[in-house]
Amino acid sequence: MRTIGLFLTLLLTGCSAPSAGAEPFPYKSFHMEQTSGRVLNGVMSLKVAGPSIAAQQWLLYFPCPPGMNSQTLVSFASGDAKFQKVVELSSAKREVLRARIPVTNSTGINQISARCNYRIRIMERGIASGPDANDKALEVPTPAERVRYVSPSTSYDFQSPIFKTWLNTNALLKQVSERDVDFAWRAFATIRKLYEYKYVQAQNRSVSALCQTNSTDCGGLSFLFIATLRANGVPARALIGRWLKPDAQRAAAENEDGKTHVKAEFLANKVGWVPVDLSQAVSNKTQAQSEYFGKCSADFVTLHIDPDMEMDTLWFGTESVPFFQSPLYWVSGTGSTGGAIVETGWQTGPAK
Questions:
Q1: Is-same-fold flag (2-34+131-296; 38-121+318-350)?
Q2: CA distance 290 to 33
Q3: What does the alpha-carbon distance between residue 311 and residue 120 come to, in Å, rounded to a whole number?
Q4: Which of 351, 266, 337 is nearest to 77 (CA)?
């Protein structure tokens, strides 16, 4: 914590004032309200067929949705694949599902298929004025988690000189008398004004690169917001996942509701985690900021918190995985994966 405190002191030295005329956060006091939720199904699938593969063993990874205020993983079923919970190798040690499948017949030599059926309770959440009269239990991070949520990382490289300059240029330095929520509201508004939405699959989404552009996607916009808050000592994190809507066309392997998405949350004192969706706000700039700040509908599942996972491939060392929103596979044996056809799917609907 001492290093973080020293860095924050440096940021506050000679910091520029917030831009005049910015719309203030609408509540003097507030709390988060949420519904009891509804249970929805999400089915993730993987098919690999490679005519040049001569497999001895397959290694499969599927996401394991974390428990948090906005969701609870009720159960998962994976059939014959027999997935087990393990932790990935980064310092965050997030849970993932892993299966090791030895080849026992000629069919499995060059193809594999697996699926995981998730039953997830999703809660709708929103800001309400005034203190919380219900005295609900908050999702309070542990001391180690709190340190992690204000720390830099591969994607959140906010200690880079170019990002520090970007913060100062855009008056994104938290004032001594400014509440965390007021600063988060102001940072959200500034990034929304500066950026347009544009999806480029191979884009460098480290914030030191993103601050040199004026367009990015849901992941990039969320990372900019998170890094801005972390650089100012406010805990923040990315929610990386998929839409989970009951009206999805469940017969389709990949449908509109199955698209990947990234949101963000920041930690407000005595309130808990507050959700924000910058990409929806940037894509709908005529709408009020309050439509995308402090609200989340029961239509999204977080598959993991924050980017930059490190997967143990068993045979090929550690593999960096920025986003884990679809299944991953590795295979031991002979031959080549060249020409392999890989299909992933995500089907959603109400729990039966």
A1: no
A2: 15
A3: 24
A4: 351
> Per DSSP, what are the bridge partners of residue 125?
34, 296
Asked if the 2-34+131-296 domain carries CATH number 2.60.40, the reply is no
Neighbours of 280 (CB within 10 A): 17
For residue 212, the surrounding DSSP H or E stretch is none
What pLDDT, in 10s, does the model give residues 258-271?
A: 689 999 999 998 88
In this structure, the strands spanning 215-216 and 196-197 are parallel
Q: What is the pLDDT of residues 166-182, one digit of tens each?
A: 999 999 999 999 999 99
CB 331 within 8 A of CB 53: yes
231: left (phi over 0), alpha (psi -120 to 50) or beta: alpha
Sign of CA dihedral 288, 289, 295, 298: positive
Give the DSSP letter of residue 70.
T
80 three-state secondary structure = helix
More confident residue, 332 or 20: 332
No. of H helices and E strands in the chain? 7, 19
Sign of CA dihedral 102, 104, 106, 111: negative
Q: Please give the average per-residue pLDDT across 279-289, as a whole number.
A: 94
Q: Where are the alpha helices (DSSP H) in 126-258?
A: 143-148, 161-169, 180-194, 207-210, 218-231
Domain formed by 38-121+318-350, architecture: Sandwich (2.60)
Distances from the Cα of 78 to the Cα of 45, 46, 154, angstroms: 10, 12, 32
Tokens of 21: 């005329």
CB 15 within 8 A of CB 175: yes
Q: Could you tell me which of 112, 197, 210 has the C-alpha nearest to residue 160?
A: 210
Using alpha carbons, select from 120, 115, 139 the residue that is nearest to residue 65.
120
- Residue carrying the six token digits 């030295």: 13
Domain ranges of the chain: 2-34+131-296, 38-121+318-350
